[in-house]
Fold this sequence. Notes:
Helices cover about 40% and strands about 20% of the residues. By secondary structure, the protein is an alpha/beta fold. Helix 7 links the parallel strand 7 (about 170-175) and strand 8. GO terms for molecular function: ATP binding; ATP hydrolysis activity. It comes from Granulosicoccus antarcticus IMCC3135.
Amino acid sequence: MIKVDNLTKKFGGFTAVNQASLAIRKGSITGLIGPNGAGKTTLFNVIAGVHKPSSGTVLLDGEDITGLPPHELFHKGMLRTFQIAHEFSTLTVRENLMMVPPAQAGETLMDVWFHGKKVQEQERKVKEKAEEVIDFLEISHVADELAGNLSGGQKKLLELGRTMMVDAKVVFLDEVGAGVNRTLLNTIGDAIIRLNQERGYTFCVIEHDMDFIDKLCDPVIVMAEGAVLAEGTLAEIKANEHVIEAYLGTGLKNKVAK
């Protein structure tokens, strides 16, 4: 589905992503791991159109999408979340979800004035979709809560729900577990698996929690110093000497050996 070929991103004299090549298979939950500063988030940002690459290409279903801005990629079904959730804090959870679908009739004064029935019908459908998402994620108890009052984990669930409002093809999740308690993290993980298995979502996940990666991801891609170092199952990654030395460290090597 996603093919990245020799992607490089430089900021002045610093190379954040260095000729990275990888593929994200349709229907997979691909993990992307590596130490802080490995280039993972920058790679996400280049693929998702936040930054233009210095060189290299990105393909989506065979189409060259290199350097396209996020709003164009949104319409092609590519979405991403961030380490820090970007909710509308003064709107409720339900209203946050209803904001997502593009080109809603109620956004124009002409439609509001002259096509009221059209506006009402579309709003009804969007609200039904939001209720479906709320039920799927089992967050009905906070549906009418202001998003700014949610916990970190609930905000991550809301971000996941927002991707469901447009039936995304591929979703990039950046540290979905950051600041999330274990119970909510398991809930988020279960929702990702259900979206993958029941609705065919493709995911690429940056995460430092290896238990979370183990639960969700196959394959796992390792980055170090801006480049792709290895790819395989998490078991294969843990047994890879180059990965152990360059990223995971001797502490985990000794732990794995026990």
